[in-house]
């Protein structure tokens, strides 16, 4: 069912590739252009010294048969190409608050029972919390892949009230609130700024079921590329788009750094909106719009420590570990030069099903872009000795904090590698190396929201800056973007048909 319409997609992150599959399976001619040698954006992996490492998509949720991500991946043709390894259902996420340990069990009933063992007097409040998370998650049509009416009032309240405000209404137990918010590094949550809806979507998503992608999440990207090709489209790497051409009324195509012109009926950009406006020389983008996009707040970046372990020494850890140097998870990004890091997230790479020993792991900790701004404009591998010294010092300090929870870990490390927000920006195209793109601050209202439609009628946006980040947020955003061309009912009906 081919038609004559051609869509050029700029950027091969998850959002761009998912849009490519949705459009190609509905007859569009699709060309995806990627500036890097490797596709995938935050789905990229890399190999150093024979060890493989994830860069962005470290684990996924709601992928058990019939759950929301399982249905989406089946529709996109991914499930036949990947293998999933489940995380520990007794504690897929584990937390240490200055040495005190807690963990989250999979499923509502198990989670309630487990939390009540830690907080026996809080049973009714824990039930209230779980009720609210389920109600908020279910109130989103797209997150539940349903065309049925939703609880709009509840959804609005959840999107305009902060996590800490809602948790304070549910319970006066400060430690319980900290445990419930213990996974805020997954979305760079901030007091008074991050909506409870963001928290509820992510908590519900991972509590339904949690998995790692065996062999790395780059397998998802490769699967999507293959599906686009099978449906008649193409994905071209080393094709940096420098300009989106426009006439007086709409976009006409794109021009790459090597001078090649790709005409298009529709252009979809899987990029930060500021990079898109810089590519468009058109009066349709008015100065006030350009200024708003240029001043969008960004989520914080991170310092990454990649650990290459000695063979058969570190037991594989099929859970995620959040360590906090103090009693609260909320203040990790308020570090000073002397007390960095205040917290971390530690995970292992899953290389094979039923893995016994870890071959590699990653430790993430917040890092502000200002810490590495002096090297802005430099290239990877050419930033100089001062930058390398900073990274080495940060690696040792971070490993020292991890060893408070995992004594002696360092002696099992054969080699380690590091990255900063500069590295992340270079390889994934995120603005200022932010972990999750645009920061959705409820105090700013719609000023920090980016619509998938632009002032150029046939130029659309997708990716983590539109709707939400994470695999579910980006895929839902891709549905929203493609709904401009296909309608939401068509896409949701196709998803349902792909999942009998």
Please give the alpha-carbon distance between the first and last residues. Answer: 23 Å
Which regions contain 5 or more consecutive residues with pLDDT less than 50? none
Average pLDDT confidence is: 93
Topology, number of strands: 20
Strand neighbour order, sheet with most strands: 8-7-16-17-18-15-19
Shape: globular
Radius of gyration: 22 Å
| Total number of helices | 15
Amount of helix: 25-40%
Question: Quick one: biggest sheet?
Answer: 7 strands, mixed
Please state roughly what percent of the residues sit in beta strands, choosing from under 5%, 5-15%, 15-25%, 25-35%, 35-45% or over 45%. Answer: 15-25%
Output the structural class: alpha/beta
Please give a quick description of this structure:
This protein is α/β, with parallel strands linked by helices. It has helices at residues 14-24, 68-75, 108-118, 123-138, 152-160, 163-170, 174-180, 196-208, 218-230, 273-279, 287-294, 385-405, 421-428, 470-486, 488-498; strands at 6-10, 29-33, 45-48, 51-54, 60-61, 84-86, 93-97, 100-104, 210-213, 234-236, 241-246, 251-256, 261-263, 266-269, 301-309, 320-324, 343-348, 360-367, 413-419, 459-461. The chain is globular.
